[in-house]
Amino acid sequence: MTLTISQVLGCDVSTPDLAGVAFDDLATVVDDRADEFTVMLRDVEDAWEAGQAREAALRRGSDLRGELAAAQPLLTGVAQALRGFAADSRAIVNHLRELVNEAEGAGYTVTDGGSVSVGAPRSTAASAYDLQRDAARHGDQIRQLLERADALDESTIRKLTANRAPNSASGPGSGAVARESVPRAGTDPAKVHQWWDSLTDDERRYLIATYPDLVGALDGVPVTARDQANRIVLDSERDRLAAESREMDAYLADLRRRVAAGEEVSSEDLSRHGLVEHRREEIAGKLRGIDQILNRLESTDPGRPRAYLVGFSTADDGRAIVAIGNPDTADNVLTYVPGTGADLSHPAGDIRRADYMAEDANRMEPTAQTATIMWLGYDAPDTLPAAADHRYADGAVADLNRFQNGLRATHEGTTASHNVVLGHSYGTTVIGHTATQTGITADELVLVASPGVGTNDASDLRGVSPEHVWATRADGDPIHWAPDLDIAHGNDPTRKDFGGQTFTSDPGDHSSYWKENNPARANIARIVTGQDGEVR
Amino acid sequence: MTGRLAVRAAAFWCVVFSLVAMLAAGCGKDRNMQPTITLAEATERVERSLRDAAAQLPAGAELKREGPDEPLPCEGAGGMDTGQVFMERSYHVIHPEPWPTDQLIEILDRYWKSQGFRVLRDDRGDRLPATLVVRDSANQVDVAIDLYHRGGGSIDAYLVADSDCIWPDGTLSPRS
Amino acid sequence: MRTAVTSRQVRLTVLGGTNASRAVGPVATAVTTGWQAYLTRLAGRVDGYGTDVVRAGCEYRAADDATVRRLR
User: Fold this and answer.
1) Strands (DSSP E) along chain C, which ranges?
2) In this complex, is the C-beta atom of C21 within 8 Å of any C-beta atom belonging to chain A?
3) CATH fold for the domain made of A301-534
4) What tens digit of pLDDT does each residue of A423-433 get?
5) What is the domain range of residue B10?
């Protein structure tokens, strides 16, 4: 089927967007019910001691629970397909409208099928040959967009069909895949992607439902599948941490009661008390962070792009990778590496910055689609004194390198996206170490408020040429106190002798760059949308 | 580098970065603890600023809401939430063709100056976007007009207004 | 036991006939309708299960208690 201009321009974007939001909402509801069902089954198990009926009841209950749980990633998949269709269509419609306006403005005749011809030329300055060539160029661009709309229809149909409601009560089981066949963490994303491509829809569904922690963490698995898997991981981690927290509360309450009652408390109990308090605080922080992530993931505001959970783990200090919009289908992709103090206990501020940058870029260039990613895929220094240590950056090198390669591997369509990696504060040091040690797959690097990137020369940053390395530092930002010494992270990359480009930001503090109306935001949007010539 | 030099360098860095930490944290000033207007009032003021600006535009324009609906959290030092929020409202100016979009900055500049608003930024020479940002101190609102020059000579105009950071309930409540 | 998925939430997802001229339109509608039907059935089965288990569990308890009383 070939689409016409009027069919594409007449596309209703808001209904699929709203329906997508509703499907995400439904996924949450179904998951909550599955959780409640688990609790109920436990009660049945406790209250009903023995007998064949008990066994039958538990078996059937477990099947039903499995069905509820299996519905969640599928509903998420429908939401992804619908909201992805809306986001892609919006960019296509905007671009098509602009091209048609341009062509008609030049006096050409545009047919509904997309061919453009020179009618009665308004200007005699250009030769007939030039006019024909220009009209043909417009025609080519319009036809390419119509083909893109066609391809979008096809891929959306494929995604919707892959996530349709099950016909029978079959939980995970069909399409079983051995755990050992899943590529190991750290495998080349291109190889991972080949493996993923070789699987059937049933096998993919099985893997997402059965090994969500493995699938969710693998660079090279498409973002939509990682999102489905990581939402399951996040949910079960939240339940696990909440249960652990309740247990500790009960333990502490009992200990306090015993102390108040004058009972004897052993020294072991006392030393354990300190550990439990510490662990409880750590868990409280992680639960708070999970709630902040959920807050964005479950946003029902259709004015904001859909968020994708690309990575999640509560191990150590925790990791979270949240994308605003789908990087696999976007034209421009920005990876934001936050700096000192970033951790799982308070990701909201960094997610919000990613939101701002996506919104700025999409407004700057509405004919393209920009996705941004908050990449807290490394252990950031907790305090500013710790930020003098380069080991945090070194620890992130392999992961950031692989993540960027993964974005290239999973990107859909024939044209590579324009990829930007932006760091703030210590995040710039992470980028610098990655680029100097392994190279980085990106088209542009942006260094905001950098304490130094581990080299004094932009040409040491492998993978990106110096004219695509951008830096800014606000007047008044205390980062100016960081001295240009090689014993730390090296020179300020806004220095002329660093050899990169610079852009303007308003005077302000260390986090002022994302304040509304700060010209840094417009400059970042220009870089992200490939309008380098407009950067001020 | 000798071991002793390395230790000294590390110690020096700790001092420098601790200093940076102190400065970034605002040296412990309690500058944001005062009561503020409520979220409802802030939303009203932001909307009023935009309506007033829109009333100055040439006839035929309509405003279409874009962007998030919810208030946005305010960032303190290091990007941490302060518990305060601000309301941002953004409208795409939809207009018939032809329409004098390129004159919007001059028109609003005159109007906003007549209201005594202070110019925060005037980048009307830029193309992506041409911007004028003013401060309405009485209402504690920043208002901006952004003009994006597109292909084919068309211009997309946006009116954007932001409130200051406020406590949703007007004061630091236990919930915040 | 609460209903697995309320009908209000299922109704929310109705796509209607938008983008009917696009190939994706009818597929989106069919997938939505399929999910509505499936979730409604699943909700019924979950509710039914809750009722069955509570009844069977209570009968088991009653029979158990009666046996205990008889043997005492």
Assistant:
1) none
2) yes
3) Rossmann fold (3.40.50)
4) 999 999 999 99
5) 1-31
